[in-house]
Design goal:
single chain; 179 residues; mainly alpha; 80% helix; transmembrane
């Protein structure tokens, strides 16, 4: 399978991008909540109490990373085991991801410029890193879509060849010469 190597390579790269996004998100979340805690300690004299909310402005990066990793494993397994359904799901995910990743890239780039009241300082490098990896994922999705289409065609051709080989074998085994 010629394009299967491309799908394998892109699947591995997408898995690494997803894993990197998880690391970026977790370090961002740690910094975000630690900064909020330090801010609360400096304002200890006030009577107000902060409501616990475990959401951050970049929570969507976590979901992107998890879904990215699941479908990259689908791509790997689909090519390694010639499973058309897994490669099809990998293709469908990447076709959608082309649009979604670009939208999220634009969103993160805009979010870097916006600062809201109470936002911890020092989160910009995490947002820039997330934007870079989301854009890299966008580029990988374009390549994956192209390679997945070719891999699907090759899997179909291989299945046709196997079917033809089995029908010829079946005809050969059923042949009874006249005695």
């Amino acid at each position: 399978m010629r394009s299967g190597g491309g799908v394998l390579c892109i699947s591995v790269l997408q898995f690494l991008v997803g894993f990197s996004l998880l690391i970026i998100y977790e370090t961002y979340k740690t910094h975000y909540f630690n900064s909020m805690e330090e801010e609360d300690k400096t304002a200890a004299g006030s009577v107000t109490e902060r409501q616990l909310d475990f959401r951050t402005p970049m929570d969507f990066v976590f979901y992107i990373a998890v879904i990215n990793n699941v479908f990259s494993i689908f791509g790997l397994a689909g090519v390694l085991h010639s499973q058309k359904e897994l490669v099809t799901s990998f293709f469908a995910y990447n076709a959608v991801q082309v649009m979604v990743a670009f939208g999220f890239f634009i969103d993160v780039c805009v979010d870097v410029q916006i600062r809201f009241a109470g936002e911890p300082t020092g989160t910009t490098p995490y947002e820039n890193a997330a934007a870079a990896f989301i854009f890299f994922n966008f580029l990988l999705s374009i390549g994956a879509t192209i390679f997945a289409i070719k891999a699907l065609d090759e899997i179909k051709a291989k299945q046709r060849e196997d079917y033809n080989r089995l029908t010829v074998l079946s005809d050969t085994l059923n042949f009874e010469p006249d005695v």
